[in-house]
Amino acid sequence: MRRPRLVWRRVPETGRRAEEPVMQSPVAVAVFKRVVDARLRRSEEGQDLLEYGLLIALIALFAIGAVTTVGNTVNTVFWQSIASNF
After folding, report:
1. Model pTM?
2. DSSP E strands, the chain
3. Taking Cα atoms as reference points, which of 8, 2, 6, 3 lies closest to residue 21?
4. What DSSP state is assigned to residue 13?
5. Distances from the Cα of 14 to the Cαs of 9, 10, 18, in angstroms?
6. Which residue, among 10, 29, 26, has the nearest Cα to 18 in the 3D structure?
7. Per-residue pLDDT for the chain (86 aa), expressed as one digit of tens each?
8. Contact at 8 Å (CB) between 20 and 7?
9. Domain extents for the chain?
10. What's the distance, CA 71 to chain centroid?
């Protein structure tokens, strides 16, 4: 990172020279902000694909859980009642 440009001025009390940073113009700050934003902007194309993948994985987990629960219920209700009749 570059140091800000410094300007020499005389301090009235001591008569010595002192450094102080120069204020940047609003136009220069706006241009700098645009340049930085353009360089640091990230592409969000891959983010959508990742979100869809996570959503599909979550739906698959719920589906597996639901099928397992229904399977255990069917086993308990039907097969155990059939087995108890024989």
Report:
1. 0.42
2. 6-10, 17-21
3. 6
4. T
5. 12, 8, 10
6. 10
7. 566 565 556 556 665 655 555 556 778 788 888 888 877 776 666 677 889 999 999 999 999 999 999 999 988 888 877 888 77
8. yes
9. 6-85
10. 40
